[in-house]
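Dear Dr. H.,

I hope your travels went smoothly. While you were away I took the liberty of generating a structure for the chain from your last submission, since the lab meeting agenda had it listed for discussion. I wanted you to have the full record in hand beforehand rather than looking at slides cold. The sequence, exactly as received, is reproduced here:
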Amino acid sequence: MGLQPLEFSDCYLDSPWFRERVRAHEAELEKTNKFIKELLKDGKNLIAATKNLSAAQRKFAHSLRDFKFEFIGDAETDDERYIDASLHEFSNFLKNLEEQREILALSVTETLIKPLERFRKEQLGAVKEEKKKFDKETEKNYSLLEKHLSLSAKKKELQLQEADNQVEQNRKHFYELSLEYVCKLQEIQERKKFECVEPVLSFFQGLFTFYHQGYELAKDFNHYKMALQINIQNTRNRFEGTRSEVEELMNKIRRNPQEHKRANHLTMEGYLYVQEKRPAPFGSSWVKHYCTYRKETKKFTMIPFEHRSGGKVGDEELFVLMYCTKRNTDTIDRRFCFDLEASDRPGVPVTMQAFSEEDRKLWMEALDGKEALFINSDRANAKREGSAQLDKIGFTVIKKCISAVETRGINDQGLYRVVGVSSKVQRLLSLLMDAKTCNEVDLENSADWEVKTITSAMKQYLRSLPEPLMTYELHGEFIIPAKSGSPESRVNAVHFLVHKLPEKNKEMLEILMKHLANVSKHSKRNLMTVANLGVVFGPTLMRPQEETVAAIMDLKFQNIVVEILIENHEKIFKTLPDATFPEPISMSVSPPNAPPRQSRRQGQRIKRPLAVYNLCLELDDADSHSSPREDTPTGSMDSLSSQSPTPTSSSSPPGLMDGNHLIMDSGDLAGWTTNLPGQGRPSMVSWMNTPSANPAAANPAPSTFFFPTPATGSDRAGESIAHRKARAVYPCEAEHSSELSFQIGAIFEDVQFSREPGWLEGTLNGKRGLIPQNYVQFL
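The corresponding predicted structure, in token form, is as follows:
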């Protein structure tokens, strides 16, 4: 049972039961006071903990933002660029989240702490003051009454009457104070229910608003997360292929190091110990040098180097060699020695010591002008070369294998990835490559040959060609466009290069790409997406003439070239390339640190963070988000290497990531000018993004990544680009009636800056609307 009500009539009786009820009310208010004090203490601890958590999260975000991955080689794939930029994106996500958490901490102070403190001081404090008055008046009333009752009856009537009046007045004052105190007690008992609970409700509303903002941020982050997962999977797949190639090369070099020495302009290079003579009492010392020799110029260089001290310990010394003489052990107390004499120091030989007799022999043969004892770098390839040729039998073998695969195993999981038994593969190849037995082999109807045996035989045949299908000569040129440029420019570059291949190579490549495109269409069953097929056939169709780790690092770009061929095989093989397209071999390669292509992740316009937390969560219709689309990236959802995700117009420039620079909500482009590949020396990106570039032009056309920086304020009003034209470099799908939908290559008329930052206004096919500024190139 709850507290009993305090009746006003009981104030006049002031019975023991009335006093008990008053004391019960007072005890309840004291308990409420203690509860509020404890709640305020916990609330302040909560705010402190929230601030500590926010500081730790921000520090974590700074750590993510400040780190950058380095890569091996001279370029990265699109997947690797997006992975590199992901840490900056994670940092921005945490930063946005912590901004909302700071608002939450502020709202706790304003909506919970201050109202409860005010109620405790103003309301409960007032009751305490009333209680003091009530207790004091009670003591005074009953003391006066006792004194009055003890008066002698023999006193004068006037004195007694005066005493009676005084007691009566005091009693009335006591009753009035009692009535007010009782009223105040009951008022506070009722008031505390909403005065205490309403701030707590506001606190929870602020908490829910914070979680809702986190949900909105996560929803905006979802498309980026999905694309990044594909980037990571593509990079992991390429890593697996690269690792196996590196291990194979390492084992080859371990078995026979001399066979795999890198071909370069130097005739001989390696470590030698050089005798340095000292004055007579000190004898001589032997210092390790890294030496190089070039036979054409007879230039010999020495660089003192000590591994134990961590690096070079002296300056490079260069001289022109006159002759070299072998030193026998009867003339020196060390083995493997020989003397060199420089043209500028005749008669002053320099004594060298090799690591072994074989090493000395190699140096001697190189230094005296004999033929260098090198093994042709193609010997490793020759070991695996058979009689495979791009002749009639070769085309028959490939066509028979393709026909069998498409008839029997197009839906087999891991097609082309699952390897057949080596002995069966060799037996099948020997039958297919023999003109007498080739036509007798029935691959489509015979159960003797498993699909994995057929696919392995087909790959082995292609690897056994004297030269890879896409040729050694064009290998480097195919790699260049895969390292930079927009998706369209890559397709154009590969299209151009394919038509430079020998006719038979191009014909065979067309047959293969048509087949692989068909395989990728069944990827839901066979799991062989375009990206997976690129990993399998990249090293099969392309390989460098010299096997090195640097060349293996380019495997991922070989895969990208194959992906482009599969996805665009009809355009590449059925149409002729643009005759004005510049030859890649004549252009400069993109520098190692070329800016990454602008990240265009899908998502909704970023919602403005709430400045305050209201009791009720109000969502502004103008800023509310529609549910995110599950749009599929252009080309293949499984390959972001050759195509980027196709954005929608809801991916408005404010809030987009550009490499490692965030385009702010205000429309300003933070750090944008440092990311313009059109500035500085020309790069591969520049010419690849020019629809019809002239290689001889003194000033190359700007890259498709260059967009005029939007004007702000009065500058925008004063800038006029009326009647200018622009060309779409990315496709876009409108999600509002005021926006335009378009495909790559669309030409916009009368393009002007919009009042909305990051957007343009233009006319397409008679319709005028908004265009995302970073999707077009001005003409």
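Two observations you may find useful: The chain has a mean pLDDT of 76. Residues 726-778 form a domain with the SH3 type barrels. fold (CATH 2.30.30.40).

With kind regards,
E. W.
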